[in-house]
C-alpha cells in the first residue's frame, strides 16, 4: 500500500503527498484532512479530534469547489466526453472502451479504406486530412487493465510544466491510467476520498494538447465513488454514457440499475452495446448463442427503456487476441463480423451527435 501511495503521489501530486488542495483546508486541520469539499468531511476517521469536524460535517466550511473551474478550463479543449459504464463486471466494458477509442482514432483511415474497396482513389490529399485526436482516461483504479489492453505495459506517464502527459498508443491516441504508475501485480487498496482525489487530478492536471475530439472515460463496474466523482465534475459538460451489457438476464438486471443511475444524475445515455452477442465459428461461419438472451438481451432492454441500441459485438477470439496484444480489431481484421459490429457502433454514435 505504501509503495503504491508513494509512487502515485510522487508522480501525480502538485502538493507533495496530499490529495486535498491545501488552500481549502483549515489551518488548524488534522494532518490527514480529507478537505471540507469531501463527502466525508467531518465524518472520516481522520476528522476525529479536529476542531473543525462539526462545522465541516454541517457544510459550513464547504464553499465553491475551485477544482470545478480548473477542470472545466483543462477540458475546454475536448469536443466530446463519453463515459463507458457497466452494471456488472466481466461484460467487456474495458474492451469496448479501448476498441471504441482505437476506432475513433483510426476512423478517417477506416473510412478511406472502405471507399477504396469500391473505387480507386488518389492519395494526394493524405497530408491535408485532419486527424481525429482521442484521449482515453482510466478511472477503474482498482482494475487498471487499459495499459495491458493497449500494449503499453511498462510505459510511464511524465509531468511537464504544462501538466501530466499521457502515454501514447499512437500519435493521436493518448492514455491516462494509474496502471502506468504502479507495479502490474500491486493492488490499489484505497478508500473513497483517496480515489476521488486521484480522479480529480486526472481531470484537472492532464495536458491533452491543443485539441481533443473525443475523451473516452473507462469506469469500474457499478455506481460508486468513481462514478459520482465523474458526475460531480463533468455533469454539465458530459456528452453521455455508453452502457455495456451481455445478453443474459443476470447482466441486464444490473444494467437497469445503471440506467436508473444515469437518469437520476441526469447523464444522457448515448446507447447500449451488447457484448458477447453470439459466437460465429471462424471455420464454418455458423452462429451459436452461448449466452442466450432469454428476455431479448440488450436490444429488447433498449427498446423498453427508450434508449438507442448501438450494436451487438459477437464473442470472437480475435477480440481476446487484440486485447492481449494491444491491437485494433478494425484495422487488423477489417472484414470480420466483430469489425463490422464496431463500425456500426461508431456510425450510430456519430449519427446520434449529428442529429443533435
Report on this model:
This protein is of the alpha/beta class and 356 residues long. It is built from 13 helices and twelve strands. The protein has helices at residues 2-12, 53-58, 66-74, 93-105, 107-118, 146-149, 192-205, 225-234, 249-264, 297-305, 317-325, 329-332, 337-355; strands at 78-86, 134-138, 158-160, 163-165, 167-170, 173-176, 212-218, 240-245, 269-274, 279-280, 287-288, 309-312. Strands 5-6-2-7-1-8-9-12 form an eight-stranded mixed β-sheet, sandwiched between helices. Helix 4 packs across helix 13. The model is unreliable at 1-8 and 10-20 (pLDDT under 50).
Quick tags:
38% helix, single chain, alpha/beta, globular, 13 helices, disordered N terminus, 8-stranded mixed sheet, 356 residues, two-stranded antiparallel ribbon
Secondary structure elements and pairings:
Layout: H1 2-12, H2 53-58, H3 66-74, E1 78-86, H4 93-105, H5 107-118, E2 134-138, H6 146-149, E3 158-160, E4 163-165, E5 167-170, E6 173-176, H7 192-205, E7 212-218, H8 225-234, E8 240-245, H9 249-264, E9 269-274, E10 279-280, E11 287-288, H10 297-305, E12 309-312, H11 317-325, H12 329-332, H13 337-355
Helix pairs in contact: 3-7, 4-13, 7-8
Amino acid at each position: 500500500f505504501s509503495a503504491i501511495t508513494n509512487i502515485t503521489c510522487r508522480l501525480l501530486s502538485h502538493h507533495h503527498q496530499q490529495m486535498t488542495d491545501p488552500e481549502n483546508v483549515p489551518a488548524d486541520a488534522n494532518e490527514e484532512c480529507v478537505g471540507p469539499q469531501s463527502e466525508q468531511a467531518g465524518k472520516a476517521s481522520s476528522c476525529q479530534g479536529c476542531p473543525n469536524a462539526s462545522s465541516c460535517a454541517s457544510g459550513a466550511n464547504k464553499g465553491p469547489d475551485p477544482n470545478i473551474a480548473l477542470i472545466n478550463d483543462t477540458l475546454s479543449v475536448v469536443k466530446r466526453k463519453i463515459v463507458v459504464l457497466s452494471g456488472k463486471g466481466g461484460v467487456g466494458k474495458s474492451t469496448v472502451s479501448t476498441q471504441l477509442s482505437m476506432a475513433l482514432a483510426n476512423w478517417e483511415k477506416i473510412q478511406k479504406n472502405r471507399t477504396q474497396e469500391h473505387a480507386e482513389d488518389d492519395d494526394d490529399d493524405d497530408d491535408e486530412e485532419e486527424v481525429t485526436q482521442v484521449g482515453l482516461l482510466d478511472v477503474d483504479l482498482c482494475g487498471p487493465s487499459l495499459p495491458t489492453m493497449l500494449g503499453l505495459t511498462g510505459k510511464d506517464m511524465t509531468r511537464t510544466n504544462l501538466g501530466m502527459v499521457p502515454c501514447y498508443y499512437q500519435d493521436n491516441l493518448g492514455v491516462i491510467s494509474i496502471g502506468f504508475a504502479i507495479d502490474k501485480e500491486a493492488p490499489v487498496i484505497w478508500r473513497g476520498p483517496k480515489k476521488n482525489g486521484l480522479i480529480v487530478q486526472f481531470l484537472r492536471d492532464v495536458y491533452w494538447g491543443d485539441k481533443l475530439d473525443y475523451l473516452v472515460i473507462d469506469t469500474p463496474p457499478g455506481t460508486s465513488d468513481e462514478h459520482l466523482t465523474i458526475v460531480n465534475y463533468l455533469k454539465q459538460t458530459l456528452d453521455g454514457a455508453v452502457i455495456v451489457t451481455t445478453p443474459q438476464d443476470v447482466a441486464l438486471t444490473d444494467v437497469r440499475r445503471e440506467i436508473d443511475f444515469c437518469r437520476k444524475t441526469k447523464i444522457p445515455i448515448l446507447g447500449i452495446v451488447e457484448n458477447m452477442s453470439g459466437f460465429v465459428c471462424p471455420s464454418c461461419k455458423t452462429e451459436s448463442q452461448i449466452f442466450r438472451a432469454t428476455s431479448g438481451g440488450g436490444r429488447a432492454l433498449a427498446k423498453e427503456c427508450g434508449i438507442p441500441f448501438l450494436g451487438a459485438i459477437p464473442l470472437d477470439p480475435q477480440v481476446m487476441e487484440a486485447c492481449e496484444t494491444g491491437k485494433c480489431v478494425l484495422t487488423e481484421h477489417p472484414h470480420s463480423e466483430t469489425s463490422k459490429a464496431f463500425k456500426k457502433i461508431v456510425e450510430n454514435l456519430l449519427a446520434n451527435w449529428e442529429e443533435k
